[in-house]
Amino acid sequence: MLTSPSGIAGLDQILRGGFPSGRTTTVVGGPGCGKTVLAMQFLANGWTEFGEPGLMVSFEESPASLAENFAHMSIPFSDKIGSGVHLFDGRVPVDTVEAGAFDLGGLVSILSSLVGDGGVKRVTIDAIDALFAFSEVGFQRREFLRVLEWLTDSHVTALLTIKGSEDAEGVPGLLGLAEYAADGVVQLRRRTIGELSRRTLSVVKMRGCGFEAGEHPYVISNEGIRALYSPKRTTAELGALEVRLSSGIDRLDRMLVGGYRSGTMTLVSGLPGTAKTTLGAAFLDAGCRAGERCLFIGFDEPAEQMIVDVRSVGIDFEGAVRSGLLRAESFAGGNVIADEHFVTVESLVDAHRPSRVVIDPLTAFNKAGGPDIAGVAAERLVALFKSRGISAIFTAVTETLRGELEATPLRISPISDTWINLSFANRNGERNRTLTIVKSRGTGHSNQLREMLLSATGIDLADVYLAGGEVLLGTARAQREQQDVMEQGLAAAKLSHEFESLDREREELKLRLIEAQLGLDQIAAQRAELSARTNVTDRAQARDADLIHGLRRGDPTE
Amino acid sequence: MSALREAVRLLLFIAGDTPRSTVAVENLRLALIEYQERKFDVEIVDVFENAGRAIADRVLVTPTLLAPGSSRRLVGDLSEKSQLRYFLQSLDDG
Known about the structure:
By secondary structure, chain A is of the alpha/beta class. Helices cover about 40% and strands about 25% of the residues of chain A. Chain A has two domains: about 5-225, Rossmann fold, CATH 3.40.50; about 240-465, P-loop containing nucleotide triphosphate hydrolases (Rossmann fold), CATH 3.40.50.300. Chain A is built from 18 helices and 25 strands. In chain A, strands 5-4-7-8-3-9-10-11-12 form a nine-stranded mixed β-sheet, with helices on both faces. Chain A has a nine-stranded mixed β-sheet with strand order 17-16-18-19-15-20-21-22-23, with helices on both faces. In chain A, strands 1-2 form a two-stranded antiparallel ribbon. In chain A, helix 6 (about 140-155) runs parallel beside helix 7 and helix 13 (about 340-350) runs parallel beside helix 15 (about 370-390). Chain A is flat, with a radius of gyration of 38 Å. The relative contact order of chain A is 0.09. Chain B is an alpha+beta fold. Chain B has a four-stranded mixed β-sheet with strand order 2-1-3-4. In chain B, helix 1 (about 20-35) links the parallel strand 1 (about 10-15) and strand 2. Strand 6 (about 95-100) of chain A pairs parallel with strand 4 (about 75) of chain B, so a sheet runs across the interface.
């Protein structure tokens, strides 16, 4: 079946193309769900993107107030009035009194006239439920079906918005009627989570068309509605897996056998102050040097602050920002739902088309509606990045030193390809930064703990020393390094001594092995002798039994 | 005294020759015969023949009876005679 795209990001994917052309779809939702916005976008995009003139009949708001409502949005509704999109004020005058049976003949005549004159292809009737405030019995059902029939006969693609949801008040019976009589039904929902509200949409039915089932989050911004739809993974990404991208730190690249794999996700977790942002910045710096487009999105501190901060480790982003290679943006973390963060990231990705992205920190999503919603939003981000072939680093703030390795922030650790944990080691009155690669899918990475050194010349990783089973860091490591140089000869001697003593021990054990084998052989021989003797005794007993049997004249034995 | 006042204009919007349209026209005619206090100048508009008039007066529901200059309007086939009478009287009051 032909579809008419709404031009609304995500929604057309969910509808697998758009609303069925020449058919009528009802959009049902409670107050504040954005029904009118959706209807308007459908018309505005229809005209600007697909050259289809539209008509909106509004039963609730005057064209003036609609234009005003949409004035602050970037959708140029008001520009469309009188050109490609016509608005008709369908509000029932306040002083209307019922005096007998009536019908919607006027509406049908008005629709016919406006649609016919303007070559209108798309019609939306906003808040059609307002007409059903009339009390006449039989009117609602009869006239609703009449309007539907007219829309179908006119071959326009229509959206009817209806107030109400299964858990809210609406016109009794109208929802059921709409769901049964219309070709398609889209349900919009709004729920409150804490102080935030979350919106989801689902396609209840779509006659003759496939659609993506389930509830899909959507957000309303000044660009209108945007639905969140996770694109299916493409196989194209698989081909790119073996390209390695520099992490910006030579030693880390070596630990990762060449760097991060292109198009994969890296999680960098750690306590506050463990240089997670710095690790992300190094990754972007390496990207900018290679001429790749990079995007930094900060939720904790202003992006400008990050740019200033990383100068202390020798990373200078000024040039990259000026040339437009690097885009650094920051947003307040907690006052919107995680779905909106996703949309923010998605629109920045669309606008900047980066090949490397850093989200710092992803755990900011947790503040935005709780871990469940944040987890889903994070998964969507991963799907988005993978579908665009973007390599990304997500930082995650961990709360405790102990829990950091078990923690799986936002369900991202299972879907991230590489997981690096940063920590502190407090020893001998020093606090030293450490880095561990917890996992790196498809890479024979080093599992050793490294000390992370930050200096004005850059970021480096140092080997750690094991002494008595303990990792040496900082001054202790430096001392140990010196000591090592001095004691190299001694160490060599000690080593050969240890070899010797091991060899001795081995010989001794070999001897013991031979002894033990001899002992086993002896025992085996003794056992053989014993069992031979047992057989002799058994035969003697059998003879005695026969004799006794004969004496007693017993029955013959079998 | 009433004869000196000019006639009140009434617009009755109907949608084709449906039973509701016919009944409305008839009900209005009878009411005006009964209601002698005032002269009325009635125009019947068929929305299917003149959609522009329906658009101009925002007549979505048919039949609709209105008087230009008054915000009051009646919808329906005017079978509720008391409502119709009240409507006509209200026009008289100004």
